[in-house]
Design a protein that fits this description.
11% strand; 15 helices; six-stranded antiparallel β-sheet
């Protein structure tokens, strides 16, 4: 299994808050939290398409016949009518705001990016905001993490908040700290992702780098026709064998640029061993390195590992590859081609990890009757 990038995982794994019909009908209540565990979105092997393990679309408290696209004008208009705001995250005390400057400050912090359209994010809001004009409720808004604003009664999709930092700072200053905590976690994860991606790119064989692109925040491995090297790589790929899979095309480039078979194999193993760390639940872009390696006969990989003393990244890559579900399915029984001393080397290396999943995978793959 492999995963989408952490930013999307965090986005899809916020706590859930449900607005009941009774609460929707009340003028004096704000959305009350009903929290439950939510699994992150993952990419499955069947079809390779993302799925949300749990979570559902938030239902509007009232469904008008027609709803419009999110706009800042409609948001400004309703805030200008508001004389009182009631805000809650369901756990902290309810906050009531009547000061015009405070109301204006929240309005500005909730400015949305009208150029981005999302549909409905598969979670319910963390924070509810009810706007009143006198005693009349005029709008119910929901804030989803530090990311989005929902106005189900008026908008046909969620609006993406333009300045999440400004919004969470405003809320945290008034005792609602959860969105800021989530944003801080996301920033840390993004920095970690950037570091991990840089390490993986540095280990990528030079001839394959022109094929790397990262559109819309999702790392992919495709010909980049915008670069001269990319055009040359794409031409070489078109001349590959009848198998036009990305792995086959990339392998053709590797064979063209690495006439030494041992160097080719150890280069691929080092690349596999330079990932984020997990052997399952890893970034989806890492799958390409293993897919290319699957095109190499197992006996050739064993020979390359025995030809020279392998480096730590090569050992890590070999352990991850031979212990993988993909290897066991694509080459059933071929784990027996590994000599016992090589299995011991890979097992000893793997057992140094503090990751229980890795340790268990390694035991299943490499432990022999003698050990």
């Amino acid at each position: 299994m492999y995963r989408l990038n952490r930013r999307l995982m965090l986005w899809l794994s916020f706590p859930v808050i449900a607005l009941s019909p009774a609460e929707s009908a009340s003028k004096e209540t704000v959305p009350h939290p009903v929290r439950r565990a939510v699994q992150p979105a993952v990419v499955g092997k069947v079809g390779g398409k993302p799925r949300a393990a749990s979570g559902s679309l938030s239902k509007p408290s009232a469904t008008p016949k027609h709803r419009d696209a999110p706009t800042n004008k409609s948001l400004r208009d309703v805030f200008e009518r508001a004389t009182r705001l009631v805000i809650s995250d369901g756990s902290s005390p309810v906050i009531t705001i009547t000061d015009n400057n405070e109301i204006s400050g929240l309005k500005e912090s909730l400015t949305i990016n009208e150029r981005v359209s999302t549909g409905y994010i598969l979670e319910s809001p963390d924070i509810g905001i009810v706007l009143f004009d006198g005693n009349q409720r005029i709008a119910v808004l929901g804030i989803i993490g530090p990311i989005a604003l929902r106005w189900s009664e008026r908008w046909d999709c969620d609006g993406i908040i333009a300045n999440g930092k400004q919004m969470v700072t405003w809320l945290a200053a008034r005792g609602l700290a959860e969105p800021k905590k989530i944003l801080d976690e996301m920033s840390q994860e993004q920095a970690k992702d950037k570091e991990q991606t840089a390490r993986w790119l540095a280990a990528m064989p030079e001839c394959l780098r022109p094929l790397w692109k990262a559109p819309d925040g999702f790392n992919t491995f495709t010909p980049n026709a915008d670069q001269a090297a990319g055009r040359e790589a794409a031409t070489s790929m078109e001349q590959a064998d009848s198998d036009k899979s990305p792995a086959a095309q990339a392998m053709a480039l590797m064979e063209k640029n690495y006439p030494d078979r041992t160097a080719l194999i150890t280069g691929l193993l080092s690349w596999v061993g330079s990932g984020a760390g997990p052997w399952s639940g890893y970034p989806s872009y890492e799958q390409m390195a293993e897919d290319i390696l699957l095109r190499v006969p197992t006996k050739d990989i064993v020979a390359a590992l025995e030809a020279n003393a392998p480096t730590d990244p090569v050992i890590e890559g070999a352990a991850r590859y031979f212990a993988s579900w993909d290897f066991s399915q694509a080459k059933p029984g071929e784990i027996r081609l590994l000599p016992d001393d090589l299995k011991k080397t890979l097992l000893d290396h793997s057992l140094k990890s503090t990751d229980d999943d890795r340790r268990e995978q390694a035991r299943k793959a490499f432990q022999t009757a003698k050990q």
